């Protein structure tokens, strides 16, 4: 089976369409969406509807912190600009779209894999995998061999032996299949579709071949200028538009 991974879409239609096109050309059997469908970007309705179609076709999606916030219309824990975008997003979604978000689980276990937006030790508290110690803590909190997370917006791959101390870490190369050795436990962050933050504006996504036990991360160029223009036309904070071209 081929699994396609999308994380942190953030209502960026241009980036999500580019990733879908690339992965459909490769071919996949099931989509896995690792949360934060909305927030920052100008196309929340289209994004939610597209993810719902993927789920209807047998895919999986989990709840992200921006999705949760959009249901309430904002949260005091967010900075002012993010809160403004979430409040705008809340009013863009209809009842059915909000109901879809409200029904998303925090985690999904799929054979030897765990899908979660933030981490496995406290999925609803939205703590970040900021390094090897946090990755090890997350791996220790689940029995699954491979954990797939979003939330960090930068591609990363961690690995450790069962019962091991701090996990090893490296940044995966685009289009390079990585064997997920069965003697190790893995935590994979495919990076953000809609808002990469590693200095590279190209959208991030990835796919796993479960028979060959390989993971391939991808960087997909897209029309970030068009996505930025849509943000500005929507009246969202200009900083959200500017950062797309910077990969920040």
Automatic annotation (TrEMBL):
It comes from the Bacteria. Residues 1-211 form the Calcineurin-like phosphoesterase domain. GO terms for molecular function: phosphatase activity. Gene3D superfamilies: 3.60.21.10. Pfam families: Metallophos_2 (PF12850). GO terms for cellular component: cytoplasm. InterPro entries: Ap4A_hydrolase, Calcineurin-like_PHP_lpxH, Metallo-depent_PP-like, Pesterase_MJ0912. CDD domains: MPP_superfamily. Transmembrane segments: none annotated. SUPFAM superfamilies: Metallo-dependent phosphatases. Belongs to the metallophosphoesterase superfamily. YfcE family. This is Calcineurin-like phosphoesterase domain-containing protein. It comes from Lysobacter daejeonensis GH1-9. The lineage of its organism: Bacteria, Pseudomonadati, Pseudomonadota, Gammaproteobacteria, Lysobacterales.
């Amino acid at each position: 089976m081929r699994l396609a991974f999308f994380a942190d879409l953030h209502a960026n239609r241009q980036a999500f369409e580019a990733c879908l096109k690339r992965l459909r050309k490769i071919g996949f059997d099931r989509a896995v969406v690792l949360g934060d469908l909305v927030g920052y970007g100008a196309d929340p309705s289209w994004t939610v509807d597209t993810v719902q179609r993927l789920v209807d076709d047998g895919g999986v999606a989990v709840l992200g912190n921006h999705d949760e916030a959009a249901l309430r219309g904002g949260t005091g824990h967010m900075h002012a600009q993010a809160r403004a975008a979430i409040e705008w997003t809340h009013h863009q979604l209809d009842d059915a779209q909000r109901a879809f978000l409200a029904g998303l689980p925090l985690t999904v276990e799929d054979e030897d894999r765990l899908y979660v937006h933030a981490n496995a030790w406290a999925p609803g508290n939205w703590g970040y995998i900021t390094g090897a110690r946090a990755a090890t803590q997350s791996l220790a909190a689940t029995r699954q061999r491979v954990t797939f997370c979003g939330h960090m917006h930068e591609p990363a791959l961690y690995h450790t032996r069962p019962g091991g101390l701090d996990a090893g870490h490296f940044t995966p190369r685009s289009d390079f299949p990585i064997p997920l050795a069965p003697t190790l436990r893995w935590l994979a962050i495919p990076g953000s579709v809609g808002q990469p933050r590693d200095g590279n504006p190209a959208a991030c996504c990835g796919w796993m071949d479960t028979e060959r036990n390989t993971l391939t991360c991808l960087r997909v160029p897209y029309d970030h200028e068009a996505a930025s223009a849509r943000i500005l036309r929507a009246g969202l904070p200009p900083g959200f538009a500017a950062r797309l071209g910077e990969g920040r």
